[in-house]
Amino acid sequence: MLGAGSWGTTFAKILADGGADVVLWARRPELAREIQEAKRNSDYLPGVNLPLSLRATSRLDLALAGAEQVYVSVPSQSLRDNLKIMAPHLHAQASVVSLMKGVEKSTGLRMSEVVADVLHIDESQIAVISGPNLALEIAKEQPTAAVVSSTSLETAQAVASVSRNRYFHSFVNTDVIGTEFGGVLKNLIAVAIGIVDGAGYGENTKASIITRGLVEMTDFAVAHGAHPETLSGLAGLGDLIATSQSPLSRNNTAGRLLGQGYRLNDVVNQMQQTTEGLASVGPVLELARAKGVAMPIVEQVRQVLAGTLDPRDIAPHLTTDDEPQGERSSDGQAQSGTAVRRALQRAFDQLRHGGRSPERDRP
C-alpha cells in the first residue's frame, strides 16, 4: 500500500483484516515508525487501532519487494511523480490498484490511464476501486461495500477476493471508465452540495442538486464510453450520496466553507488533506466541452471557485430556458427508444443466460 493518509491507511487495514500480508509505505519516517511500532496513525486516523499484522516502512524498495498487488493512494496530481519513483521496484507481473478519485490537470487523464502511461504495463494488470467509502467510518469497521473494476474480469476478481472482510464487501465489474468517472464526478457535486449548505439552503435544494447532479455524471460518463448502469451503482449514486451528505467528506466540507463566504485560498489552507473535487473542476469541464456535454452544476461550482458567482446565487438545477425541457438530457422520443432497446437487451441477455438476468456488478 503506497500512501499513509486516511484512505491509504484504512485500506491497508481492510486488506490486513482480510488476511493479506500488507506493507504500508509512508513518505515520512516518523509516521511509518508510529504505524509499525504503535499500530496507530494519529495524524489521519486518531483513535483507531491498526492490525498487529500490518507493517510499515518509509523505504519504497522494501514496501514493493515481492508485492503481487500494489495499491496506490496518493494525491491524484502527484500520482505521475510517485509512479516514476516506484517503477524501478515494481514486479513486472504485479497488479496495480488505484484508490484515487481524480483527473490529472495537465492531461485530463483518469488515474488508471496515468498508471498505464507511466508504468507501460498492460491494462489487464490495472484495477480501480470506488464506492461510498468514507475512510474514518470504515476504519471504525462500519459495514460498507465498493466496486473493483478492471478491463480484465480475472484481475478484478483477484483484487476483490483480497479486498474484503467481515465489514467490507467488494463487487466487480469491467467498466473502468464508469467506475473512475463516478468517483471523480461525485466529488464535484459534493462541493456544490456543500456550497448550498453553507449558504443556508435546505433539503429541497440539496436533493434537487443531487438528483440533477447524477444526470450530469451519467451524461458525462456515457459520452466517454461508460455504461449508464455503473453510475446508478456503488461507484456513482452510492458514492454521491455518502460524499454529499457527510461532514467527513472533504469535498462537502470545502464546499460548505465556500458557501459561508471563505475564499478558495483560505479553504485550501484550512483543509489538512487534498480535496480532489477542487482540483478536478477545470479538467472535467474541458473534457465535457470536448464531448458537447452540458454540466451546469459543475460550471457554477467553477464560478464560485473563481469568485465570479456569489454562493447564494448558485441554483444550477433551475432552468432559464424559454420552453420546458425534459428531465433527461435527451428528448422523450429518444428516451423511449432507449428504454425499448434496454428492455430488448435485457430479454436477450436473459435468454443467453438461461433465464437469469446477469448483474453488471457481480459479487
UniProtKB/TrEMBL annotation:
Taxonomic lineage from the root: Bacteria, Bacillati, Actinomycetota, Actinomycetes, Micrococcales
Gene: gpsA
InterPro entries: 6-PGluconate_DH-like_C_sf, 6PGD_dom2, G3P_DH_NAD-dep, G3P_DH_NAD-dep_C, G3P_DH_NAD-dep_N, NAD(P)-bd_dom_sf
Binding site for NAD(+): G3, A4, G5, S6, W7, G8, A135, R250
NCBIfam families: PRK00094.1-2 (NF000940), PRK00094.1-4 (NF000942)
HAMAP family linked: NAD_Glyc3P_dehydrog
Bias (Basic and acidic residues): 349-363
Organism the protein comes from: Agromyces protaetiae
Residue positions of the active site: K186
Gene Ontology BP term (one): glycerol-3-phosphate biosynthetic process
Protein name: Glycerol-3-phosphate dehydrogenase [NAD(P)+]
Recorded catalytic activity of this chain's protein: sn-glycerol 3-phosphate + NADP(+) = dihydroxyacetone phosphate + NADPH + H(+); sn-glycerol 3-phosphate + NAD(+) = dihydroxyacetone phosphate + NADH + H(+)
GO CC annotation terms, alphabetical: cytosol
Protein residues bound to sn-glycerol 3-phosphate: K101, G131, K186, D239, S249, R250, N251
